[in-house]
């Protein structure tokens, strides 16, 4: 079976880049990405490709090549579903904020809405692909809705979780470590659907890297991968605190440990805490699933990853207060970076948000500069926490358009995102323009201690 038309519901950080790469590599397939968010679709269709809503290195080039050739962005969801032989669901699956499982379980209401819409609209057989990260056994619920509310057409449900990381999305999509496809391995129709998706990826991914499994293994592998990755960050961050107490250096420890081929060097960078829309959400979801099966020890084990991460953000902020003579009240504190990692404009669950909230509670005045994050996003992130009236966030937080303005007259500078440009700033100039003693807190192990101390900074870095 050859796929001719793909529809992807959800034009976000996953739907946009993933479909752009499929369109680039499969010129004979028409790919339509749809969303209920009109502004987002408008931005994807912006004449100037630099204005697309997701910032990712290399993405605007792929969009320029494919858009209006075989890649389309639209709000006409019904007609895109109707035309498609394969429908990807790539909508958000945030942590529930209400009812049973509040604060832990994944909120599947957007997924269910998609399933109901597909069922209502479809007049021909479809392969429905779970691209969103979902609790294990969600496919069962999807199938139930599709089969019982549909127009009698046949559906095959596949799980095809996405492993791209933001900031390297295009590179990850072009050269994935693996592509995972879960499906009904027992039936000929299931196998045919899986093969159809394998054939899409085989346009550019070596077949040895395309794994096929049962749906349940595929769904659970995604949660497991994110849990393992986040666990590594929490493991090294736990060690960073011990390093600070003992005189060991976490970078040296990470290097020594990572050279063991069984452990490996990647994902061992100590930081102010992991952020991003997924690690926390997916682990909470895993914890919830474990608890719902009565596996309390399993749940507690994974929950500890989140506990350490929250601790890391809090202790970084607390150390700033302690170092600044136990008060930051009325003091100007400059933040370099707001995104949850470099090379993305995404701020969801960024550690910077929580550090800011902590310092605002201590009455600090914060000035923020991030190369890719807009002021409205920063205020929205702070308002979302509901810690204080929105006007107060606007009064106590200002947004600068470069690092030098941010640092001027500051008591302290906090490096919160590892943007490359922060490495090559004129740090002498920044030092001269700050109040003295000039404190510099490196939450990303981005800067050289010796050089900064020579300039005159009082320098603090995670894990040393
Ligand atoms: N952000 C990332 O790096 C990764 C995310 N994921 C997973 O992919 C999924 C999507 O994540 P993101 O793209 O980051 O989310 P996002 O929030 O950027 O995008 C989701 C989009 O879906 C749209 N949407 C929601 N309900 C809809 C509906 N009924 N009809 C049409 N559009 C609808 C929203 O308006 C939004 O634009 C999540 O499950 C996430 O866990 C997986 C791997 C990487
Ligand atoms: O499901 C998802 O959403 C994705 O989650 C992560 O990708 P992402 O969150 O985009 O970015 P990462 O590079 O994993 O970084 C996550 C956070 O951990 C932090 N981190 C990462 C690595 C490290 O060594 N130290 C560290 O503090 C980063 O700064 C960032 O805040 C996974 O890496 C992807 O494989 C997965 O697809």
UniProtKB/TrEMBL annotation:
Its EC number is 1.1.1.22. SMART domains: UDPG_MGDP_dh_C. Residues 334-449 form the UDP-glucose/GDP-mannose dehydrogenase C-terminal domain. NAD(+) binds at residues 10-15, 35, 40, 91-95, 132-133, 166, 278-281, 348. InterPro entries: 6-PGluconate_DH-like_C_sf, NAD(P)-bd_dom_sf, UDP-Glc/GDP-Man, UDP-Glc/GDP-Man_DH_C, UDP-Glc/GDP-Man_DH_C_sf, UDP-Glc/GDP-Man_DH_dimer, UDP-Glc/GDP-Man_DH_N, UDPglc_DH_euk. Gene3D superfamilies: Cytochrome c1, transmembrane anchor, C-terminal, NAD(P)-binding Rossmann-like Domain. Keywords: NAD, Oxidoreductase. SUPFAM superfamilies: 6-phosphogluconate dehydrogenase C-terminal domain-like, NAD(P)-binding Rossmann-fold domains, UDP-glucose/GDP-mannose dehydrogenase C-terminal domain. Catalyzes the conversion of UDP-glucose into UDP-glucuronate, one of the precursors of teichuronic acid. Belongs to the UDP-glucose/GDP-mannose dehydrogenase family. This is UDP-glucose 6-dehydrogenase. It comes from Christiangramia crocea.
